[in-house]
Design goal:
The chain is of the alpha/beta class. 51% of the residues lie in helices and 12% in strands.
């Protein structure tokens, strides 16, 4: 007959190890299910993120369409489409500072390229005007556009730009234009390489968003 003194007691260390093992398995299972859920929901979540970041104004008629520097693959084509649809009677093109490669005729600047793209898309030369000469960044381009609008008695400008840039552009132009009773209409366009539905699958999309987040923070701090 066994007495109470002869019954083996459970080992506290063994019980603790079993508890830790069960807890570890549970945590791993939760982490795996979380990763799986995020993976399955990545498309709607990341698409919603891009759409939330995009800040676009309703399209209305304007005094001019402004093509900012860069984006020659999409911006002048979007501007030409808006012009042909009757949203504005003229197109303004930002003119960058002269670089050694452009001075020597080795490479055209983006203002010249944008103008040539507009001409190729059927915009008449008399409807195109180069402005903001020597503008080095978006802020200087916006100042150049504001100066042109004040000089020519214009009140509204339509600005097509890639959707990833729209929030920064909306903030910048509102800050510079609205105190002067001027208005900028920001029109979101799609880059060639990616869209709001698949930007995370393309190197250009990921890098563009990261760069734009830094630019937006920089502009808010500097200007």
């Amino acid at each position: 007959m066994l007495t109470s003194a002869s019954v083996p007691l459970p080992c506290p260390c063994c019980a603790l190890r079993r508890f830790n093992l069960r807890a570890w398995i549970a945590l791993c299972a939760i982490a795996l299910l979380t990763v799986l859920a995020l993976w399955m929901l990545r498309r709607p979540v990341l698409t919603a993120t891009a759409r939330a970041w995009t800040l676009e104004d309703p399209l209305t008629k304007a005094d001019a369409i402004f093509v900012a520097g860069g984006g020659a693959d999409v911006r002048p084509s979007a501007a030409a489409r808006l012009y042909h649809e009757g949203y504005a009677p003229r197109i303004l093109v930002a003119s960058p500072p002269e670089r050694p490669t452009t001075a020597r005729g080795l490479q055209p600047d983006h203002g010249t390229v944008n103008r040539e793209m507009l001409l190729a898309d059927g915009v008449p030369a008399e409807a195109i005007e180069m402005i903001a000469a020597g503008a080095r960044n978006s802020h200087e381009e916006a100042l150049g556009l504001r100066s042109w609008m004040q000089t020519h008695g214009a009140h509204t400008a339509l600005i097509p730009t890639e959707y990833v840039h729209t929030r920064r552009m909306h903030w910048l132009y509102a800050k510079l234009m609205e105190p002067n009773n001027l208005h900028a209409i920001i029109h979101a366009i799609r880059p060639l390489e990616y869209s709001e539905q698949d930007w995370w699958m393309h190197e250009e999309g990921v890098l563009s968003l990261h760069a734009e987040l830094l630019k937006f923070a920089y502009y808010r701090l500097k200007y």
